[in-house]
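Sample log: Large ribosomal subunit protein uL11.
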Amino acid sequence: MAGTIEVLVPGGKANPGPPLGPELGPTPVDVQDVVSQINDQTAAFDGMEVPVTVEYEDDGSFSIEVGVPPTAALIKDEVGFDTGSGEPQKDFVADMSIEQLKKVAKQKSSDLLAYDLKNASKEVAGTCASLGVTVEGEDARTFKERIDGGEFDDAFEDE
């Protein structure tokens, strides 16, 4: 009866109710133990929906794999806005600093195709462009060009 369950849970606030409880109920695992471990592992993503995979065995043992929330959710949480712009090329909803951009890139690095923080930051800036978020006070597309031009090399030097 071993199996896998995939759910989205609120970071640090999973509980034995839906969606987790009904999925785990018929399995041999201790539901409260699973919930506790999920909350420990997702505490850093408080207030965000986090993808979680629980693999369990017939003997009641289990393992938990915590995914990373979508890039847009990380940006919204970091900068503090609820919804992106309807016209992201004209109407900007927030501004992000280079340090905030790097923080989101680090959080999301395991899911990105980039091989270093500089390129991961460019991927995050691409999401900023689609949300209507400026970076360092300017359109995120222009910011990506400035990164390519070497203007922010010192910000990525220690990484």
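Observation: The radius of gyration is 19 Å.
Observation: The chain has a mean pLDDT of 88.
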